[in-house]
Specification:
Layout: H1 17-24, H2 26-39, H3 46-55, H4 62-73, H5 80-103, E1 107-108, E2 111-112, H6 114-118, H7 120-141, H8 144-167, H9 175-200, H10 205-229, H11 235-238, H12 244-247, H13 253-260, H14 264-273, H15 282-294, H16 297-315, H17 324-338
Antiparallel strand pairs: 1-2
């Protein structure tokens, strides 16, 4: 999904909403990172070596950042949100390790994927280790509510990945089926990260629902843009191989939108290239990008992402306008939709 992981800023004079939030919560995130490093430790050398390779490879920690922001939005003064944020990052990292093995992706955040260096077996098992560490941290907090939210999220993410796998190469899936996938595999962790942050701050039921709605719709918009960028952005900016989704036969938003307007020749092309077992080449990817451009799919996809972005921004209306973090979280939506990397 990505993700915001490789946020290369091309204009050093422009401070993005993500950078603003990261700067405002810098000390909190230092504490989160210290916890992450501490709990990556193991007497088995391969585990910290592989985990460090991925966790230290350039991610912006957006999901744990949202956990911290959600707690502090409500004036939380304790330190349990650090463990929650670290748990969220471990869950996210574990899913990345597993996903890259399933997808056979050879690049992650502009570097070689962990499984290409350490092997599939090690990547899967270290992913399992990180999931376990996440739950150990959750138990230490002693909150059944946050444990329930994040454990449910872990199960839903796995379901989403399986659902996506079952939808691969199927040009007949609907946009709603696509949304079911991204709600589960991406938006659920965004939602849980925000909801858990609110819970640790003793939020009201209204605030809890608002934070969850904010995170879920942010996650949907984020994944829609990520999927569009896979047919649009140079490799070095996005931090992954452009065209991976096409090569893996993933039915994502740009293909689904292009299919709705496909003529006979285009339908023949999509049917051939998305047939199971089909070897897709560079020329096929260029053709796919050409079709997508001709049908103005990027503009249409961005408009759809904006619908979910607006829902996320509306969800924040229950919080105090005087709280600076509210504006940062609000502006983050526009950044996610307008990004080109």
């Amino acid at each position: 999904m990505h993700n915001i992981a490789q946020d290369t800023i091309t204009d050093t004079d422009v401070v993005t909403p993500l950078e603003q939030m990261t700067s405002a919560l810098e000390q909190d995130m230092k504490d989160v990172n210290a916890l992450i490093i501490k709990h990556m430790h193991s007497g088995v050398p391969m585990i910290p070596k592989l985990a460090t390779y991925l966790i230290a490879s350039g991610g912006k920690r957006v999901r744990p950042l949202l956990t911290i922001a959600s707690a502090k939005l409500l004036g939380y003064k304790g330190d349990a949100h650090y463990k929650l944020a670290a748990s969220v990052e471990f869950i996210h990292t574990a899913t990345l390790l597993h996903d890259d093995v399933v997808d056979d992706s050879d690049q992650r955040r502009g570097k070689s994927s962990a499984h290409t260096i350490f092997g599939n077996e090690a990547a899967v098992l270290v992913g399992d280790f990180l999931f376990s560490r996440a739950f150990q941290l959750m138990v230490q907090i002693g909150s059944l509510d946050t444990l329930e939210v994040l454990s449910n999220a872990s199960a839903i993410i796995a379901e989403g990945e399986v659902l996506q796998l079952s939808n691969n190469n199927n040009i007949n899936i609907t946009e709603e089926q696509y949304l079911d996938v991204i709600r589960a595999k991406t938006a659920e962790l965004f939602a849980a990260a925000c909801e858990a942050g609110g819970l640790v701050a003793n939020c009201s039921p209204e605030q809890r629902n608002a934070l969850r709605e904010y995170g879920e719709n942010l996650g949907i918009a984020f994944q829609m843009i990520d999927d569009l960028l896979d047919y649009h952005t140079p490799d070095d900016a996005l931090g992954k191989n452009t065209g991976d989704d096409f090569q893996e036969g993933k039915m994502t938003l740009p293909v689904i939108l292009a299919l709705t307007e496909a003529d006979a020749d285009e339908m023949t092309f999509w049917t051939r290239t998305f047939s199971r077992g089909q070897q897709r080449n560079d020329d096929d990817f260029k053709t796919a990008c050409g079709i997508i451009n001709n049908h103005r799919v990027f503009d249409k996809g961005i408009e759809k992402a904006k619908i979910y972005g607006a829902k996320a921004q509306t969800a924040l209306s229950v919080f105090d306008d005087k709280e600076p973090l509210k504006k940062m979280m609000y502006d983050l939506i526009d950044f996610v939709i307008e990004r080109r990397y």
